[in-house]
Design goal:
The protein is about 30% helix and about 5% strand. The protein has a domain of about 35 residues. By secondary structure, the chain is mostly helical. A hairpin with a 6-residue loop joins strand 1 and strand 2. A two-stranded antiparallel ribbon has the order 1-2. The radius of gyration is 15 Å and the shape is globular.
Amino acid sequence: MNIHEYQAKELLQKFSVATTRGKVVSTPDEVAAIARELGDVDLATGRVRPNGGLVVKAQIHAGGRGKGTFTNGF
């Protein structure tokens, strides 16, 4: 089976397994909107910090870590 992380998370969530929050996006505009939506939660207060730390993960099927590249060379 060869699935992306987001697909695995959707499958786990379907069976009520706790996973981290996340969204799948395809454009820079979508990234900005989701970053605002997700924000960053302060565990002590439960409040969202709008300028908190978020992680962006690019996912492709390339046969292993470090084997894929973007068209701009990254």
